[in-house]
Amino acid sequence: MRQCTAFPAFLRISNRGQGFINENPRRKRWPENVLGCRVRRVAVRAEEIERAFKTMYSELSTIQDPTLVREILEELLTEHPLVSGSEGDMDLSGNVEEGLAFSRDFARRCNQLLGTPEEFFLSHFHWEAHQPPGNSPEIEQLVKQMIAGRSYLIKEYGKSKQTYMLFKQLSDQGFSGLCVSRTKPTILESKYGFGKVESKWLTDIYLTENNLINPTNVAQINIIVKDFMKHNDRGAILLEGIEYLIYYNGNDSIIKLLFSLNENVMVSDSMLIVPVDPKSIDPKTLYLLEKDLEVIDFT
């Protein structure tokens, strides 16, 4: 599977645009449509996507190297066989879903390779600038359906923004929060306002701060999370950065860590929340995690 890293924030909704919980197949199935909610989608026509993409592509070619922009376009056309065209003239043949996926992949690739800012694409792809998930009734409904004693694998493209907002709502509802993340705690606090949440920073830099966890120290992560569950009757634990941990430790050790934490969660009143970008880990690892944890799908 092609490996991807940091994506623009607006790419948090995938081409399917659904947000739902998949129960563990080994457990009893919940009633169909138990959540009754999906992440809101903005109505857009294929012709509108084609026009917006053409305008965006023309402007992008004037501010970036047009040869590089063309190479990115041509590469993506090979990955999206349902889309045809050249030099920004996209032909979707009425396929809106494929048009949304293609536009997001193009924005993601340009952000990665050319450093094109998210705001540039938002100015052209207005349908992506929808209401932040933290204020959406869909996220609130998902939180209401989450159950203590369960671990949740949250599939989400990009920088886990919806996951952070979901975690914040759990904290606001009285859960004691522990956030272990690749993002510096002060940045998360300024961005999401977690308040009394205990935060740990996954980083390999050497500082004297006591809230740092080296990514190679899997045992420390295990101890911190289990100790938090032991001393908090109603805890919400967010473990963000699984891809980062896998890079340093390999798949097996991180899968074992999550399996062990999940077993401890099941005999507690806490929740474990693990966001993952499905494009950033191999299919076998993703399958094993989906099999053992509940799945909230934002892809």
Would you mind describing this structure in some detail?
- The protein is an alpha/beta fold and 299 residues long.
- The chain has helices at 46-63, 66-79, 96-114, 118-122, 137-145, 161-172, 185-192, 218-231, 242-249, 251-266, 283-292; strands spanning 20-22, 84-86, 89-91, 151-155, 176-181, 198-202, 212-213, 235-239, 271-276, 294-297.
- It folds into two domains: 9-39 and 132-297, P-loop containing nucleotide triphosphate hydrolases (Rossmann fold, 3-Layer(aba) Sandwich); 46-128, no CATH class.
- A hairpin with a 2-residue loop joins β2 and β3 (89-91).
- α1 (46-63) runs parallel beside α3 (96-114) and α5 crosses α6.
- The chain starts with 19 loop residues before the first strand and ends with a strand.
- How would the global form be characterised? elongated
Topology-level CATH name of the largest domain? Rossmann fold
Question: What would you give as the CATH superfamily of the largest domain?
Answer: P-loop containing nucleotide triphosphate hydrolases
Uncertain stretches: 1-21, 23-41, 131-135
Count helical runs.
11
Overall tally of domains: 2
CATH class wording of the largest domain = Alpha Beta
What is Rg? Answer: 20 Å
Distance between the termini: 16 Å
> Could you state the order of secondary-structure elements as H and E?
EHHEEHHHEHEHEEHEHHEHE
**Proportion of residues in helical segments:** 40-55%
Assembly type of the chains comes to single chain
Q: On the 0-100 scale, what is the average pLDDT?
A: 82
How many distinct beta strands?
A: 10
